[in-house]
Design brief:
Distance between the termini: 58 Å
Number of domains: 1
Structural class: mainly alpha
Radius of gyration: 20 Å
Length: 45
């Protein structure tokens, strides 16, 4: 069994990329929801 060097960071894989894509999609969706709700007179508390 080989020992891993503790100073090496694991390389990001496709799942990390998908995580960033989903966070960006949620942020954009929330922003669009706020713009839509402003048409009905909704304001932040």
């Amino acid at each position: 069994m080989s020992q891993r060097n503790s100073t090496e960071k694991p390389a990001p894989d496709v799942y990390v990329g998908l995580l960033f894509v989903s966070v960006a999609a949620l942020s954009i969706g929330i922003a669009f929801l706020m713009f839509e709700l402003e048409k009905y007179g909704w304001t932040l508390p």
